[in-house]
Write a structure and sequence with these properties.
The chain is of the alpha/beta class. The protein is built from 8 helices and 11 strands. The protein has a 5-stranded parallel β-sheet, sandwiched between helices. A 4-stranded antiparallel β-sheet has the order 6-7-8-9, covered by helices on one side.
Length: 224
């Protein structure tokens, strides 16, 4: 999944970015509310981590504009304001969750998983295709009961594919949701990771689950 972090504290911004990238997310970062709106105008995100107290436009204004535009993307507000009134105000504007600073990064990751699961088509953390199972809550992958160990990026690609099982995903779609704006594209990096996944997911099994659709991309599905 691709996540936008809007946080004006540079050190905290960097810490959050590193934690999310280690977890396999594609991450874009910005440091003020106007920049956040510019990012949102050009890119589709799966979740937004939004600080309230930012220059140019504060987080509440960004959230209000986002909801007024009809977007339902999950938003987690970050703030040092911990009164009940502040939390209620943020939630009433359309925030999905509210995290008071200082916070544990593991808790932020858990909240991201929770809000993205809440707005997913499937209201569960467990996805399956054939005998392949991905538990996005526990971040575990098994096939035929055997645990498969994946790198963060391999897992991110597989999670995106299984959340969209049966749909043909293009190279551009995978790049947009797994990598960030710093990724230049145009190389075979997606092909390389698909090859890694095939070796770990399909090798040794008669039924293959990852299929290439020539000229279009890849699809995760069980074929008869």
């Amino acid at each position: 999944m691709r996540i936008l972090i809007a946080e004006d504290e540079a050190d905290l911004n960097k810490l959050i970015c590193r934690a999310l990238e280690r977890a396999g997310y594609g991450v874009d970062t910005c440091f003020d509310g106007q920049e956040a709106l510019d990012y949102l105008a050009g890119t589709s995100y799966d979740c937004i981590v939004l600080d309230i107290m930012m220059p140019k436009k504060d987080g509440r204004e960004v959230l209000q504009k986002l909801r007024n535009s009809g977007s339902a993307v999950p938003v987690i507000l970050l703030t040092a304001l911990d009164s009940v009134q502040d939390r209620v105000a943020g939630l009433d504007l359309g925030a999905d969750d509210y995290l008071v600073k200082p916070f544990d990064l593991n808790e932020l990751l858990a909240r991201i998983r929770a809000v993205t699961r809440k707005y997913g088509i499937q209201k569960t953390s467990v996805y399956s295709v054939g005998d392949l199972t991905v538990d996005t809550g526990a971040r575990t992958v098994t096939r035929a009961g055997k645990t498969i160990n994946l790198s963060a990026k391999e897992y991110a690609i597989l999670e995106y594919m299984i959340r969209h099982k049966g749909a043909v995903l293009s190279r551009t779609q995978l790049e947009d949701h797994i990598w960030n704006y710093d990724y230049a594209g145009g190389s075979n990096v997606v092909d390389v990771y698909i090859a890694y996944l095939r070796k770990k997911i399909d090798a040794g099994f008669e039924k293959k689950l990852i299929h290439t659709i020539r000229g279009a991309g890849w699809v995760l599905r069980e074929e008869p």
